[in-house]
Amino acid sequence: MASMIASSKVVALIFFLLVSYGSCTSIVNFNASHITADPYWVPARATWYGAPTGAGPLDNGGACGFKNVNLPPFSAMTSCGNQPLFKDGKGCGSCYQIRCLKHPACSGNPETVAITDMNYYPVAKYHFDLSGTAFGALAQPSRNDELRHAGIIDIQFRRVPCIYPGLTVTFHIEHGSNPNYLAVLVEFEDGDGDVVQVDLMEANSGWWTPMRESWGSIWRLDRRRPLTGPFSLRITNESGEKLVAYQVIPANWAPNAYYRSNIQYQAFSSDFSSDAGLGSGSGAGLVISPAAGLDTKILGVIGLICLVLCRLHGTDVP
Ligand SMILES: *[C@@H]1O[C@H](CO)[C@@H](O)[C@H](O)[C@H]1NC(C)=O
Ligand SMILES: *[C@@H]1O[C@H](CO)[C@@H](O)[C@H](O)[C@H]1NC(C)=O
């Protein structure tokens, strides 16, 4: 479990999509220029796990390493993704619109969820194991329970950019970090919602050292010689765009602490705004708030729990 994964964060609304519709072998494609042209919905199946109105795992975390996903900006609109969605952790923090049309209790309205966890049961080519909250959100008003009762439903999905109004890319120094081992969770990147590389520069060293994916959205660096802060962090998104958070981690950094940067990706080009009606509607799913779960509480090695939950749940699937 610990060997899987890596990446980042989260939520909200509007557009961006990939995938070629109908092709069962298609893989999610991040070429944004396709998105405005082909905003196709792709078939998938959905299940749910955890408490009926909960955020998934009992600890409100998941295999991505995010914490407090019951709170904004995730607000429990979260999902486990199977491998084509979770991508060994690289899919952590990706945002998708989902909707259901077939079950009579479905509202048909798109909702936005973020990938915060993983599952690997062979339920469908694309399988969203949703939080109870997210699953229920696909229903018509007051028919949430009826829909949840269905257990497994056909849905459609499409990738959308994540948007975290008022939030900048935030780094969380993970529990157990020390001068010879630094583990950093990267969160709240607008746009694709995850990063494909993180590099670190020690105080005045003048060069970047690549960090490596530890698990989920957590990146780590192991050093025999103690690392000297402050640290600058450089993140690279799926488009290859690099942003530098200059000396975002102070010399007197501490584990279990959040450090907010002043950098943020552009979520999308203006081409997206026409579809952004979603962004302002309350039905759009994830509501983002600057409160953003900047809680210093850390829950430690979390992914295992969800993995187990996902697995248990998976065995119930007809
Ligand atoms: C995106 O797709 C367009 C149209 O197929 C292509 O011209 C362009 O080079 C692609 N961009 C990237 C970054 O792959
Ligand atoms: C990567 O970042 C650039 C710059 O902010 C942005 O224009 C681009 O859309 C981002 N790529 C993705 C896939 O979000």
From TrEMBL:
One of its GO terms (cellular component) is extracellular region. Residues 61-167 form the Expansin-like EG45 domain. GO terms for biological process: cell wall organization. Gene3D superfamilies: Expansin, cellulose-binding-like domain (2.60.40.760), RlpA-like domain (2.40.40.10). It is found in: Secreted, Cell wall. Residues 180-261 form the Expansin-like CBD domain. It comes from Paspalum vaginatum (seashore paspalum). Keywords: Cell wall, Cell wall biogenesis/degradation, Glycoprotein, Secreted, Signal. Residues 1-24 form the signal peptide. This is Uncharacterized protein. CDD domains: DPBB_EXPB_N. Belongs to the expansin family. Expansin B subfamily.
